Amino acid sequence: MCKDIPWKTLSEAYAFVGNSLLKPMTMTLTVGLDPAFWEAFPAFDGAVAQAGEVCACYAEEAGRRAEGGEDGPQRASVEYTRLFVGPPSPAAAPWETMYRGKDVTVGFGQATFEMRELLREAGLEVRNANNQYEDHMGIELLYLSELCRREATGEGATESADIAAFIEQHPLAWIEPFLDRVSEAAPNGYFAGLLLVAQRVLEHHARLLAR
């Protein structure tokens, strides 16, 4: 396994984004609205740093709105619901299946079965109150976070080529069109910046594994 890859830091980055995509901010940490969090966010490379600056700018603006009485976590949660829940349907469906073909309207398909098998092989089980399909972007990032955590602690048994293949074939294969839908539905919103960070981290990780 590649020794020069910051597995622990990557695990933490993937976990933060993954968890942020699975529950509205009123049910999770609100650190994404703190500019200091983004200043301290790992700048794996210049592209990740630039994406982090987008999130920092959103957080700074959220701070100004909060001074005027706005509830920042509530605003982000309303955006979350409109994007990923509905009604009547998500503005930006968070499941890989929806991006595997044209005019897909059912968020359950081959990608779901593939992720179920990968999770089973890793000894992982999805437990969430919303009963999300396993090919949810948040779950894919949390799966990748766990692989990175195992590598950081020496528990890993997954070949670097298999991790690289997962990144390329799953989250990185559809995060761009997913981000496009999010950006169209909620331009300059919290989640467009968050997904841009995730995309840039995935791209950086893939380059490290390709060495």
In helices, the fraction of residues equals: 55-70%
Q: Give me the number of helical elements.
A: 9
CATH class annotation? Mainly Alpha
Envelope shape: globular
- Identify low-pLDDT runs: none
- Tell me about the largest β-sheet: none
Instruction: Please state the CA-atom Rg, rounded to the nearest Å.
Output: 17 Å
Structure description:
- This protein is mostly helical.
- The protein has helices at 7-20, 35-40, 46-67, 72-84, 110-121, 137-153, 160-169, 171-185, 190-210.
- α3 packs antiparallel against α9 (190-210).
- The mean pLDDT is 94.
Task: Write a concise synopsis of the structure shown.
It comes from Gordonibacter urolithinfaciens. By secondary structure, the chain is mainly α. The chain has one domain (7-210): TorD-like, CATH 1.10.3480.10.
Keywords for this entry:
211 residues, mainly alpha, TorD-like, 0% strand, globular
Blueprint (SSEs and pairs):
Elements: H1 7-20, H2 35-40, H3 46-67, H4 72-84, H5 110-121, H6 137-153, H7 160-169, H8 171-185, H9 190-210
